[in-house]
Design brief:
It holds the Pfam family FAM86. With about 300 residues, the protein is α/β, with parallel strands linked by helices. It is about 40% helix and about 15% strand. About 5% of the residues have low confidence.
Amino acid sequence: METLDKITQLYLSRAAISKILDSIDSNLNEGGLSECDQVKLLKLTILHEVAIKFPACLKYRSLFLKKLIALLESRNIEIAEAIYVNYTNLIANNQEKDINYTSYLIKGQVITVEDTDSLVEEGTTGLHCWEAGKQFISFALSHQHLFENKTILELGSGVGLTGIAISKLINPSFFYFTDCDPQVLSLIQRNIDINKCSNCKVLPFLWKDENDSKCLDTIKPDLIIGSDLVYDPIIISDLLDVINRSNRLKLSMIFLFTDRKTDVLSQFEKALNSNKDLHWEVEILLMDKDLFFDHSSTEFKFHLYKINV
């Protein structure tokens, strides 16, 4: 197989199973896939050392093997016993607590986060890895001078993927993860512990809470960041309050939002323009698919906002 790293990265990051199978299928030669090669394939995916320590949810693992078996059968390839054994073990597993982990191989580092597939769970969107957060990592890696040796505060940190990647790959002086939901804050702390991040702290931050906002005066971060914070127009005014307070403190801010072809971003820009003291600019970005081996047909478009940068 020519693209072993790609297959591993796709699997660990829980890419669409069809993508993984396409990559496997493209490497099948006329001789098919020997039993030895099939065992090797398991070690690249479900039996990879990272996948064993931090497995994807049971549903994802069992579906992957089910689809893999179907692919091999369609190619008239004799299926290795090891694949059947692993598949039957999974479908017989009725464990009550099924934690889901997603791992990303970025610049030689493994970053693992506990997350969920549900877009909204327990009343919050913070338990899911969003595309804008991944794109922010790509931006940060190509503009490291904006983050190196800086005290950074992230609004709406979600599962913590963006901040953990910046902390591990770029080396800021200190990183503050924030969110308003206690469940999300606990999840961030677990993910920080998984990745052994240092020089960081998790803080509660409800944007419209005056006491929480005072942390900006105390911390005075060099940079405030955030991704996909304005998915709902109702929260724009609260975010603007934080931006205006940060602006009075002369803090730099970088936000990256997904263009979902609604008028939310235009409303956000209108809100920014309501404060004549704000100096901001916007740049349109496309998804960096190479960083995450994501070659889907979906063309995500993002708006990158720089304020006082």
